[in-house]
Write a structure and sequence with these properties.
The complex is a heterodimer of chains A (345) and B (89).
Chain A: H1 2-28, H2 39-43, H3 49-79, H4 82-89, H5 95-103, H6 111-123, H7 128-141, H8 143-153, H9 155-178, H10 180-187, H11 196-200, H12 209-244, H13 247-253, H14 256-267, H15 274-286, H16 291-299, H17 305-315, H18 317-342
Helix pairs in contact in A: 1-3, 1-12, 3-8, 3-12, 5-7, 5-9, 6-7, 7-9, 8-9, 8-15, 9-16, 9-18, 12-15, 14-16, 14-18, 15-16, 16-18, 17-18
Chain B: E1 3-10, H1 16-34, E2 38-45, H2 49-55, E3 62-65, E4 68-72, H3 78-88
Parallel strand pairs in B: 1-2
Antiparallel strand pairs in B: 1-3, 3-4
Helix pairs in contact in B: 1-3
Classes of the chains: A mainly alpha (345), B alpha+beta (89).
Chain lengths: 345, 89
């Protein structure tokens, strides 16, 4: 029994280590993990073959990055002390903004967990500010999306996006908590803060390492099963964009200050899982989208329509509209700032 | 005879992981009932104010045994659920 456990543990550690080492090697050797197909390569092919070639290109280069991303996502969700973080975030103090920003990325979870945590934070009296900060940062900056963004769009754009999204989320959360309707909403739950019974009601059982590793890998696999099918379907669409979307249009509308505004507008309402947004962003970059517009494009994540609808059922439309408008402004501002910083719009 | 009260906290409508967790809990409950132990399984909505005021912010899915959250944010296999429940007996 004990040996079986040890063997299982070793096998699973080896699996995770394999992806980590391969990934490190790829980064050190600057071997690119992103598809190399250009519009010219794709255009000559028959219509049905375009998505196949593009998908194959992604799978060939991207399997390592995706495998690594999903394993890390699983390991993070299993081994980081989430109950501790949740309690900290719901403490209702100023620090909870920072905790929400820095720690939300490791809650790499599907949206079906995001909204419950959000409403939980609200009901627990954490305040609308930190709760909103969490809601805005978590989907944009989760570890899965971050790894893929770094690999596909380059670390400069990825870091700019992460930093800008974090700052914007704190500012927006804080601002909304100061609006009359934000205060009104918050006052409804202020009495719930610091309930001592809650701490006693959570007493997680300890599990042996092999069970935890297995649980981590299982969750990584679950995420992959949830996300990859949509990702591959999205890639089919992206392959046609890459092949046929006129470069002149991209050059005209997705560069310069106007490009930043257009990108922020397009990136938002379009409901796409983050991974597809990154892939589509890559296709547009290949077609000539400017770096500033790319950052604005990525920042458009928080105000897509389905997410806003489910949030508005909890907090009311006024708060949703407020943070939607603010997110748009933040996306444009970040795009412009990044454009100025790197010197090309 | 001891009584076990199990509550599975999940989202409503249920996500696949919450469903699986409830399934596993019910499977183990059926087994323990076969041994003559009184086990009750209920489902709680994670977004309900009542749930939050009892447990604070939790991650779905979570398993509560006799009023204490034992597992959260993961789907434990039936074997693990059974071990946790037996510890409470």
């Amino acid at each position: 029994m004990e040996t079986k456990r040890a063997v299982k543990t070793a096998l699973m550690l080896a699996f995770i280590l394999f992806f980590t080492v391969m990934m490190a090697r790829a980064i050190i050797g600057s071997y690119t993990l992103t598809p190399q197909s250009t519009a010219e390569d794709l255009r000559g092919l028959p219509l049905w073959e375009i998505p196949l070639v593009y998908l194959w290109d992604y799978v060939q280069h991207g399997w390592l990055c995706l495998g690594f991303a999903f394993s890390v996502a699983g390991v993070f969700s299993e081994f980081l002390p989430q109950s501790f973080m949740l309690r900290y975030m719901s403490s209702g103090r100023r620090v909870s903004y920072l905790v929400a920003t820095v720690l939300a990325p490791v809650f790499c979870v599907c949206s079906c967990t995001m909204v419950p945590i959000f409403s939980g934070l609200l009901y627990a009296g954490a305040g609308i500010g930190p709760a909103l900060t969490f809601l805005l940062v978590a989907p944009a900056n989760n570890i899965l999306a971050d790894i893929v963004t770094i690999q596909v769009l380059g670390w400069r754009v990825a870091i700019a996006d992460m930093v800008a999204a974090g700052i914007a989320a704190i500012a927006i959360g804080y601002f909304v908590s100061k609006t009359p309707w934000g205060r009104e909403f918050e006052s409804r739950f202020a009495g719930n803060r610091g309930n001592p019974g809650q701490a006693r009601a959570v007493e997680l059982v300890e599990q042996p390492l092999d069970e935890r590793l297995w649980s981590a890998l299982k969750f990584g696999g679950y995420l992959a099963r949830q996300i990859l099918p949509a990702f591959f379907v999205g890639l089919v669409a992206v392959s046609y964009v890459q092949a046929f979307f006129p470069e002149e249009l991209v050059r005209a509308y997705l560069t310069g200050p106007l490009g930043v505004v257009v990108a922020a507008l397009l990136g938002g309402p379009l409901y796409t899982p983050t991974l597809i947004e990154v892939a589509l962003g890559k296709a547009l970059v290949n077609l000539g989208m400017s770096p500033g517009a790319t950052v604005a494009w990525l920042m458009g994540q928080p105000y897509d329509i389905p997410n806003s609808l489910s949030t508005s059922r909890i907090v009311g439309w006024r708060i949703v509209v407020t943070y939607g408008v603010l997110s748009f402004i933040a996306a444009v501002a970040s795009g412009l700032i990044y454009g100025v910083l790197v010197g090309t719009f | 005879m001891k009584k076990l009260n199990i509550e599975v906290i999940g989202v409503n409508p249920p996500c696949p992981r919450c469903k699986k967790t409830e399934e596993n809990a019910r499977k183990v409950a059926a087994k323990l009932r076969g041994e003559g132990i009184d086990v009750e399984v209920n489902k709680l909505d994670i977004s309900a104010k009542e749930t939050v005021s009892r447990f604070g912010v939790v991650m779905s899915p979570a398993i509560v045994v006799n009023g204490v959250v034992k597992v959260m944010g993961k789907v434990p296999d039936p074997g693990i659920v059974e071990r946790i429940l037996r510890q409470e007996l």
